[in-house]
Amino acid sequence: MTAAQAENGHGPDGATALPCTQPRPRPRPADRDRYTIGEVSEHTGLSAHTLRWYERIGLMPHVDRSHGGRRHYSDRDLDWLDFVGKLRLTGMPVADMVRYAELVREGEHTFAERQDLLRAHRENVRSRIAELRTTLAVLDFKIDSYADARRASERN
To answer: Does residue 13 or residue 139 have the better pLDDT?
Structure first.
């Protein structure tokens, strides 16, 4: 992604950026676009070890470094980590997240493949949601059964 795309409201995957609907653990400091690994860790809830691992396996795009070799994360990096966090919450395998990151780095000609990957994952998420709804109904039934049994035993 080019700097112009980022300035024009495009996200790290080249698509139009959407605001994050999940509140962040800590707001980003105003008038700043450089964060230490500790600040990113506090902001995202990810350990410094996990952030380094993400970088090592190719899940994170290139992270700038200071002259002393310290990582300097940008707002764009935080946006990417927010997106990766959403993928994690949906249960996307790390290998698929890494593949997606690779496709993003390869450029716009991978839009169709990225879309296919996300569509397939969306179907998995929908299946899991349906399973969870069924499981929730069983739990609700069981809880109601116990409530009925308790009321009946209190009457006796």
So the answer is: 139
